[in-house]
């Protein structure tokens, strides 16, 4: 796994929803080797442990990456206080990303702050992709215009019905799976959501990869703090989300 560590310039900062921020960061050496599904590990002020944030965009021509993150605690709050022109301390790119293939039809499913990692995939697959996004309510919805710009079809769900379909992402996904013709599914979000998607994909024999969210300390597989139960060759194996993942074949995860 090739990665680098340094301080990089924040070119643009945007508040995309309440307590959710988008940074565009100038880092040519990271943008050159990053791939969809990988993440960055960010130093937050004087906190000892870095914070993992998924990569939301990669522009190799401009030498930039984009991250979109939610303030969930003191660490991410500290990162959110950085402004355009500030430097951000990152270790990146880290982790194992998504498998990219010449699929004719894919479904990208994001739940809440698990939605940003789906955007690089939408940019790759374009009109071949259907993007299903799920949020708590209308005021938490993010990135819908970004997805539409890729040419992908978008389906929006909210738990309270304040925007889009009233209900969980598994509802429209089940309807698509029943129609058939899906070559692959990629998903990121809460574990119950991912488990439900994995079960549907197993039922309809659809290739599925999931990006797991987990607390990480080192980010490089050394501290063993982000172990998750998986199956390899029919035997239980404790994989590291930061190094072996965060992307796993859904059939390998022990839910």
List the main descriptive attributes of the protein structure presented here.
single chain; 255 residues; alpha/beta; Elongation Factor Tu (Ef-tu), domain 3; Rossmann fold; 6 helices; 15 strands; globular
Description:
α4 links the parallel β8 (129-135) and β9. The protein folds into 2 domains: 4-94, Translation factors (Elongation Factor Tu (Ef-tu), domain 3), CATH 2.40.30; 106-213, Nucleotide-binding domain of ferredoxin-NADP reductase (FNR) module (Rossmann fold), CATH 3.40.50.80. The protein is globular and about 50 Å long. The two termini are 27 Å apart. With 255 residues, the chain is an alpha/beta fold. The mean pLDDT is 95. The chain has helices at residues 28-31, 74-80, 118-125, 144-149, 170-179, 191-203; strands spanning 4-17, 20-26, 39-42, 51-59, 64-70, 87-94, 106-111, 129-135, 153-158, 165-166, 184-188, 207-211, 227-232, 235-240, 247-249.
Strand content: 35-45%
Q: How would you name the CATH homologous superfamily of the largest domain?
A: Nucleotide-binding domain of ferredoxin-NADP reductase (FNR) module
Largest sheet: 7 strands, mixed
Total number of distinct structural domains: 2
Strand order of the largest sheet: 10-9-8-7-11-12-15
Output the CATH class name of the largest domain.
Alpha Beta
